[in-house]
Amino acid sequence: MKPAIILDDKQWVAIEDIALIAKQQQPLELSDSEDFIQKINQGAAFIDSLLEEEGCVYGVTTGYGDSCTVPIPLQDVSELSKHLFTFHGCGLGAFFSPQQTRAILAARLVSLAQGFSGVRYLLLQRLSQLLTHDILPKIPQEGSVGASGDLTPLSYVAAVLAGEREVWHNNEYQAADQVLRQHQLPPLTLKPKEGLAIMNGTAVMTALACLAYQRAEYLSRLCSRITSLVSIATAGNAYHFDERLFQVKPHNGQQKIAARIRQDLHPDTTPRNNNRLQDRYSIRCAPHIIGVLEDALPFFRQLIENELNSANDNPIVDAEDQHILHGGHFYGGHIAFAMDSMKTAVANLADLLDRQMALLMDPKFNHGLAANLSGAKAEQAALNHGFKAVQIAVSAWAAEALKHTMPASVFSRSTECHNQDKVSMGTIAARDCLRIIELTEQCAAAMLIAAVQGVEMRKPDTLTANIQSTILELRKHIAFLSVDRALDKELRHCMTLIQNQHWPLYE
């Protein structure tokens, strides 16, 4: 396990950090430096001083949203946070996975640690302790419009801190108050700004975006390797990836993909008797297709990491200069755009893989391989169908991925008495993006198995170390398909290998 990230108001947290925390491969610890503790507590003290002076602060001495014109009597202010997480307890749909929930807790903690949310250091400690003890709020996935942040899903975090609702702990759902008692963690009575500070932010969509980015980046590399395998299997023209060719159209990502494929192929892998000058687009244009995602990744990183390392609730509490700043930092427009854009780029990879699978299966286009890559011997050929059904499944997965590319961010709805009259839909975009990534990983798992079979059937004279390594590693887990067998368990296993980034591609 990697050394702990020590979180304070100066620590820049990267996408990879969130992914490692989510996978329990790196712990997150809260700084105990006096300066940091003082900065955090200063915000909570400033809120207290305003209450003593009967100041007006949104969500502290007023109702929420459209109810901001409703004053809250000072004797009732302490009850406001409880009411906030209580009436937002209306989420539905599937629940976020443990990995996703850890990412959500980490993302919220990073934002609150910026020191502009008016919460106590104790609150940050308690969020950190949930991660340390792996006490994970049971959070429904559906119910957020992405502004005012992820209110409904994050209400389940606030409620758990107060000892309510359920948590995932020790591989089962349990009552939150019981689990907190087991770990000597008294439920918190949330102070006036604390419920709003937990809920009124972009932690859910940002956490999902971090996980999506990490998986999409690996898919870019994996699809490069699969393209190399398909080129070899179909006796393709290795010169399609020549460095001089790509110098005249200098998109950086496109050049990077071509360079990866060049690492995998010898120029002399193009058969000498091959009179085919040009392969079909799904091979020849693969750098141009995968390269779009590769070129977009740095921009996505900038948007996601800026959001992650920001104070994104409302109002912003500037305790040092004694200001309460009312604004809209809960708005998830940047994450929504990143996720909607990533959806399209990744779905294009699923479509590419589907087209490459079609080339491999069809004897009219695979240049001498058996139909459907059947490895059956001649006397069994009539009975066996190779990867025929797998190709159909890949087409289904690719089609579903493409169907989900409709951008969520353009479906803003006016809601909450027209107070939230323009919303980001960032959480829906992030959930859609993760679904597209999963479907593309399914296509990649099938294609990796099929492409390796195609290379072995082609029996080329030479293979680079990269290609040999991929083949040998796959064969440790999945055998050559010589006669028909159900492949679902092997496909699922290959999916797990992909999601764990098992193959160290182009490091």
Description:
- This protein is mostly helical.
- It has two domains: 5-201, Fumarase C, Chain B, domain 1 (Orthogonal Bundle), CATH 1.10.275.10; 208-313 and 330-499, Fumarase C, Chain A, domain 2 (Up-down Bundle).
- Helices cover 52% and strands 6% of the residues.
- Helix 16 (426-458) crosses helix 18 (488-499).
- The longest helix has 33 residues, at 426-458.
- The mean pLDDT is 93.
Number of DSSP-assigned strands? 9
CATH class categorisation of the largest domain: Mainly Alpha
- Helix percent band: 40-55%
Shape: elongated
What's the SSE pattern? EHEHHEHHEEHEEHHHHHHHEEHHHHH
CATH H-tier superfamily of the largest domain: Fumarase/aspartase (Central domain)
User: Within the largest sheet, what's the order of strands?
Assistant: 4-6-7
CATH architecture of the largest domain: Up-down Bundle
So how many helices? 18
What's the domain count?
Answer: 2
